[in-house]
Amino acid sequence: MKFLKLFFIFISTTVISQELTLQQANHLASLPLKCLQQEYPNKLGQLLIDSTEIQSPKKLHPTFYGCFDWHSSVHGHWSLVYLLKKFPNLANKEQIIQKLKTNLSKENIQVEIDYLNKKHEKSFERTYGWNWLLKLQLELETSNEPFAQELAQNLKPLSNIIINRYIEFLPKLLYPVRVGTHSNTAFGLTNAWDYALFSNNELLLKSIKENAIRLYQKDENCPFNWEPSGTDFLSPCMEEMALMQRILPKTAFLSWLKKFAPNLFKKDFKWEVARVSDRTDGHLVHLDGLNFSRAWNMYYLINQYPNDFKHLKTLADYHFNFSLPFVVDGNYEGEHWLASFALRAFEEKK
After folding, report:
1. What secondary structure does DSSP assign to 189-248, as a single string?
2. CA nearest 264: which of 213, 222, 324?
3. Is pLDDT at 104 greater than 60 in this prediction?
């Protein structure tokens, strides 16, 4: 009954309004709030050197131990900070702030730093978790709430490590990773670029721009019909487009895009949504995330170049609205992370 109630709330509000409502925000906030300090089930992306490293998730990652895995916990934190900024009257506001303060304490962040500084963990969460961490850093730094400014300072040393790792790693990456899952290179640079731009980090901006051009400048005719692969939650074509949109000026970008994705310019462009056969399967439910990924990147394109791409609005809405009701389907396989993807799409709808 609870799922049916939430389902109809999402169906009715998305049909009536394209804006994120307080009612929807409260339901979306409830998902990361529920799992932010839920230690199990848990999937550790850990390399064990010896038996002394076998410890509980909370011991290893006292900040980001909840929501099943490290990166989902990171973007769960981002979701709550984003919603608090957008909705000052968000339900359970004080509880949310207290959990954020507990998790993002200086002491807990130091343990996360110590973990990442292990020689054998240099590639930990590269680059998916890195990318989300810098989005969380950006959200905290752009909030006017006193608690957020304090937590931004706490998190900054960890973010600085990630920034240095980007700069060190990117020149070594001779070929981009083009999958629709965690290791996708293009997605792994988008939030990082946004934070570098906000913080005026010229070294990070230079590294991302030079390496993105090296990796993607010559790409043509991205095979949209190859999507989706069976467990995609990111659109390889759209994430690459979004990265190049960020780093190239208008004329250069549109020229590149006409070679990379000529079909996007067609007024009658169609793209079927990804469908999920079993939302209790933690991998198959990824495909709901793919619909959100396509949507947020189409919205981003439309917002910057409305005269060229406003015809994509209906298609973006179709992908967005198709998966939105299932964010609250009661299955932890999707609930521990999909709220963040839905909010990412809401963020770009504007």
Report:
1. HHHHHHHHHHHT-HHHHHHHHHHHHHHHTT-----GGGPPPTT-SS-HHHHHHHHHHHHS
2. 222
3. yes
The secondary structure of 257-288 as a DSSP string is HHHH-GGGG-TT---PPP--S-TTSTTTTHHH
Q: Name the residue among 158, 199, 162, 166 with its Cα closest to residue 185.
A: 166
| Residues 230-252 as b or e (16 or more Cβ within 10 Å = b) | ebbbbbbbbbbbbbbbbbbeeee
pLDDT band at 10 (very low <50, low <70, confident <90, very high): low
Q: Is 216 exposed, middle or buried (0-12, 13-18, 19+ CB in 10 A)?
A: buried
Instruction: Reduce the DSSP state of residue 49 to 3 states and report it.
Output: coil
Q: Are 264 and 246 in contact, with CB atoms under 8 Å apart? A: no
Res. 17: pLDDT tops 50? no
CA 270 – CA 333 distance, rounded (Å) = 29
Q: Take residue 20 and report the two structure tokens written for it.
A: 């994120």
CB 61 within 8 A of CB 46: no
CA distance 52 to 9: 48
Please determine, for residue 109, whether its predicted confidence score (pLDDT) is greater than 60: yes
Q: pTM of whole model > 0.90?
A: yes
pLDDT over 90 (residue 294): yes
C-alpha distance from residue 133 to each of 104, 114, 231 (Å):
12, 16, 23
- Rounded CA-CA distance 341/345 in Å is 6
Decide if 67 contacts 38 (C-beta within 8 A): yes
Q: Tell me what the mean pLDDT of segment 211-223 comes to.
A: 98
Helix axis angle for 106-116 and 146-169, nearest 10°, is 10
Phi then psi for residue 319, to 5 deg, are -65, -45
